[in-house]
Every structure is written in structure tokens, then in C-alpha cells.
Design brief:
The chain is α+β, with helices and mostly antiparallel strands. Helices cover 16% and strands 40% of the residues. The chain is built from two helices and four strands. It has a four-stranded antiparallel beta sheet. The model has no long low-confidence stretch (mean pLDDT 94).
Length: 67
């Protein structure tokens, strides 16, 4: 998680985060970490190999609105 907190992706999205980490899982050589971000979810992809913070990616996913 150190690589996440040092990453440009985290620095860019951190102002939008409204929770601590909600879920963490590993898949296909990546560690995923999700956070609430208002009406969105921020999902970070952190490579398990290497320690370059520039390789971390983030996606902001819209939460479905009730019909």
C-alpha cells in the first residue's frame, strides 16, 4: 500500500475520497483497492511486482442511481 500512497494516481484522486480503504483483493498480478468517492467508487490497481508509484492506475466508477 506504500506504493499506492506515493503514486500520482492516489495524489490526484485523494481529495475525492470519502472513506478509508473499503476492499482489497489480488488478481492477475495486481492488487486492487477500493474507496468511496462521493457518489462514485475509486478503484486503484497496484502492480504486485515492482515499486514504481507511477505504475498505479485509478478508475472512478459511477454508482448506479435508484430507478
Amino acid at each position: 500500500m506504500r506504493v499506492l500512497y506515493l503514486s500520482p494516481a492516489y495524489c490526484t484522486a485523494s481529495a475525492r475520497l470519502t472513506s478509508d480503504v473499503q476492499d482489497v483483493w489480488d488478481e492477475d498480478g495486481l492488487r486492487f483497492a477500493s474507496y468511496a468517492a462521493g457518489h462514485r467508487t475509486a478503484v486503484f490497481a497496484i502492480p504486485l511486482s515492482g515499486d514504481d508509484p507511477r505504475t498505479v492506475r485509478v478508475a472512478l466508477v459511477e454508482e448506479p442511481t435508484p430507478a
